[in-house]
Amino acid sequence: MSHMRFRRVATVTSLLLASTVVASGCGGSSGGGGPKIAFLLPENQTPRYESADRPYFEEDVEKRCEDCEILYNNATEDPSKQQSQAEAALTQGAEVLVLDPVDAASAAAIVEKAKAQDVPVVSYDRLIENADVDYYVSFDNERVGQLQAESLSKKLKENGSTSGPIVMISGDPADSNAALFKKGAQKGFESAGVDVAKEYDTPEWSATNAQNEMQQAITALGKSGFNGVYAANDDTGGGAIAAMKSAGINPEEKPTTGQDATVAGLQRIVAGQQYMTVYKAIKPEAEASSEIAVALAEGKPVKAKITDKVDNGKTQVPSVLFEPVAVTKENINQTVIKDEFVSADELCTGPYAKPCEEAGIS
Ligand code: BGC
C-alpha cells in the first residue's frame, strides 16, 4: 500500500457525471481518448479500496491501454448511490463495468441496465447475485472464513480453552462475501468443537457497529464468559478490541481474528492485541480484473486464466479466484512485507518499533 499513485485527472465531460462526482466527492476519471472502463468500489472505510484496489487497477489499465479512460467512483456503502454512479458511467459511454457491489442482490438491476446496452460486467471481489454477470474475480472466500476459524481454534487450544466459547462478529449481510466468510468459519468452528456464545452480523462492516455488538456480548456474557472473538475483518476486529479495552478486558487474553492485513490490524498483531488477519493479495486481483476489462473494452479475446465457474443463481460465471493466506505475528515478514503490500517502515512506527524488533519484522 506504499506505492505511488500516478493518476491523470481528465476533465469530466458529461454534466450528469460531473454532478455525481461532485456529489460523491470521491469520483474521478483518468486517461483519455480511448475506451472507457468504469471501476466502481463499494466503500472507503476499509483501507484496501482507496489504497490498494484503486491504484493497482489504475496502474495496470494504464500499462495495458494508455488511452483507456477509467471512470472511477466509490459508493461509500450506499447502494442507491452506486446505482446512480453506474448509470452515470453508462451514460458517459463506459464500454465495461467493473463492479464491486455494495448490495449483492440490488446490484442485479445495474447489470440489467448494462446488459440492455451490451455493456459487459465484471463482478469484482464480491459476487453480484442472480444477474447475467460476465466474469467474477475474487478470492476463495469460504476459505477465508476457514482460515480464520482454523487459526483461532488452534490458538484457543494452546490457551487451554479448546471449546471456546467465542463471540462471532460477522460482516455486512448485504455483502455476498460476508455470508461465505461466515459459512467457512462456522464449518471450521464446528469441526474443531468450538462453541459460539453470541453471534452478530455487522451492517456496513463498520467498526462502530462491531464495537456496539461486542459491548452487548460482554454485557450478556460477562468478562469471563468468552475466550476468543471471530471478527470478519480488521475493521470489525478493531471495533471488538476497542469494546474489550473499554470494558477493562485485556485483548491479549481473548484472541481475535481479522482480514485485509490493514496497517492498523497488523500493528495490533505486532502489539499482541489481535491474534491474526487474512492477507489477500489485492495486486493480482486488481490486475486480473484490469486484464479482463481492457480486453472487453477493446473487443479482444479475454486471455486471463479462468480458474473456476461460480454459480450466482442465474449463471455459471467464469471466475478467477485467488488464495487467501493466514497471517500471525510469526509470518508477517514472509507474507505482507515480502509482497510489499505493507512496508516495515509503515508498520513499525512509534510504539510499534520495539515489538516489531522483538518479532524480527523488518
Ligand atoms: C471484502 C473484504 C472487506 C469487506 C469490507 C469484503 O467484501 O472482501 O476484504 O474487508 O468487504 O469492505
Topology:
Elements: H1 15-24, E1 28-31, E2 36-41, H2 48-64, E3 69-74, H3 79-91, E4 96-99, H4 108-116, E5 121-124, E6 135-139, H5 141-158, E7 166-169, H6 176-192, E8 196-200, H7 207-221, E9 228-231, H8 234-246, H9 263-270, E10 277-279, H10 282-298, E11 308-311, E12 316-322, E13 325-327, H11 333-337, H12 344-347, H13 353-358
Parallel strand pairs: 2-3, 2-4, 4-5, 5-6, 6-12, 7-8, 7-9
Antiparallel strand pairs: 1-3, 10-13, 11-12
Short account of what is shown:
The chain has 362 residues and is of the alpha/beta class.
Low-pLDDT parts are 1-26
Instruction: Examine the secondary-structure arrangement and name the CATH architecture of the largest domain.
Output: 3-Layer(aba) Sandwich
Q: State the CATH topology of the largest domain.
A: Rossmann fold
% residues in beta strands: 15-25%
Explain how this protein is built.
By secondary structure, the protein is α/β, with parallel strands linked by helices. The protein has two domains: 15-139 and 282-322, Response regulator (Rossmann fold); 141-280 and 325-358, Rossmann fold, CATH 3.40.50.2300. The protein has 13 helices and 13 strands. The strands form three sheets. The protein has an eight-stranded mixed β-sheet, sandwiched between helices. Strands 8-7-9 form a three-stranded parallel β-sheet, with helices on both faces. Helix 2 (48-64) links the parallel strand 2 (36-41) and strand 3 (69-74). Helix 2 (48-64) packs across helix 10 and helix 3 runs parallel beside helix 4. The two termini are 16 Å apart. Mean pLDDT is 93; it is low at 1-26. The structure holds beta-D-glucopyranose. Residues 43, 46, 48, 125-126, 171, 175, 177, 205, 233, 259-260 line the site of beta-D-glucopyranose. The site of beta-D-glucopyranose has 12 residues, from loops.
